Amino acid sequence: MKPVLDWIFERTGIDRVWEALMERHIPEAEGSVSWLYTLGSAAMFVFTVQAVTGALLAMNYVPSPDHAYDSVKFIGDKVILGGFIRGLHHWGASFMVVIVVLHFMRTYFMGAYKYPREGTWMVGIALLGVVIGFGFTGYLLPWDQKAYWATMVGTNIAGQTPFVGPIISKILKGGVDMGAATLTRFYAIHVLILPAIIGILIGAHLFLVVWHGISEPPQRAKPSDGQEKP
Amino acid sequence: MEHESPSGSGAEMTRRTFLTWVSGACAAAIGAVLSASGLAYFVSPAFRKDDEGWVDVGRLADLKAGAPLKLDYVERRKDAWATTEKRASVWLVKDGDKVTAFDPRCTHLGCPFRWDDAKKQFLCPCHAGVFAVDGKVVSGPPPRPLDRYSVKVEAGRLLVNSKPIRSEA
Ligand code: HEM
Ligand code: FES
Fold this sequence. Notes:
The complex is a heterodimer.
Chain A: H1 2-12, H2 14-22, H3 31-36, H4 39-58, H5 68-78, H6 82-109, H7 118-140, H8 145-159, H9 165-173, H10 180-212
Chain B: H1 15-43, E1 54-59, E2 69-79, E3 82-95, E4 98-102, E5 114-116, E6 121-123, E7 130-131, E8 137-139, E9 148-154, E10 157-165
Antiparallel strand pairs in B: 1-10, 2-3, 3-4, 4-9, 5-6, 6-7, 7-8, 9-10
FE2/S2 (inorganic) cluster is lined by residues 106, 108-111, 124, 126-127, 129, 140-142 of chain B.
């Protein structure tokens, strides 16, 4: 085993990447405060679960008004552990928002957004938007009453925007009325566009986290990590 | 604080190695449950039972011995979440108590054959294949007897399962 690993390491440097990622120094934090630092990793974990269960659901889902509802029902009734996998994706979606908001609050209240981590923060804000986008587009997919009317409300809210509202609403719905084109549009956004965007954003976010190192718990009258803006 | 001690190999287990192992074991357990569920979902088609597919095609009373009858019916097939409808037909032959169902397609190249009441034989219009009332080839190019469908009688109704049972040459 060792010679094989050494061969790979020598040619790829993966061991050093691993060291840089997993064996980097992190600030010391006491007791319950240290748990707050796990929220980003928790978000990462739920995101992974969402990606895997989502891919599995897509194997049996049809984004068309005459099949969407039946195909979701099929997953629950006929696919082994289909209800469980769907349940994971369903609850994972809510957990994702909750955890990301908690993570957002921890980085806010601990001042982790301050110099030099403004970039991490801004990418984070974009991630928050994408997570909410996942929730909004995913909610329509089961095509049941709740899904339909929730999306009706959501797109109508967008339609209230002064001047551009009607245009935004039509673009969201893929037409004047909600229907087949809305479903395919939401589906494409949910499984193609947002995953591509979140992949890039998570990559940038984690790169910046490693690049700057994790910030210390804040201390009174001390700039973050003792670093003043130059 | 014990984290200064070298990560314990040998008999001495430090708090740090202990916690590393515990969280490693938890992660492994969570990972195992999640991936096993995902895998079961992925391979579930291998264990899915096919829809039985019995279709009611008509009344037993309409079927007279020695007079094969062609019945047309609409077949509703469950295809995963979708239900497809297809027009189909079947030849039914009664012999005493026994009912036989023939696939209406000739075993040569699939033309629909007909019953010739005078000759008491099935005749295929395409290449003059001829089958006896029991489905055996009498003459012509067909390579094997007529294919059959499973058929059963329930409460005076004829039920057919239109998955062809291939006959032996
Ligand atoms: C998909 C959603 C997100 C994922 C997967 C994610 C993941 C992570 C991870 C793994 C860390 C390092 C560990 C930690 O500090 O918790 C981190 C740090 C950070 N995140 Fe996020 N995050 C997400 C969303 C956000 C949001 C919405 C914000 C705020 C707008 C944000 C701001 C930050 C900041 C400022 C840091 C640096 C913390 C420090 O250095 O102490 N992230 N993120
Ligand atoms: S198809 Fe019937 S004889 Fe050729």
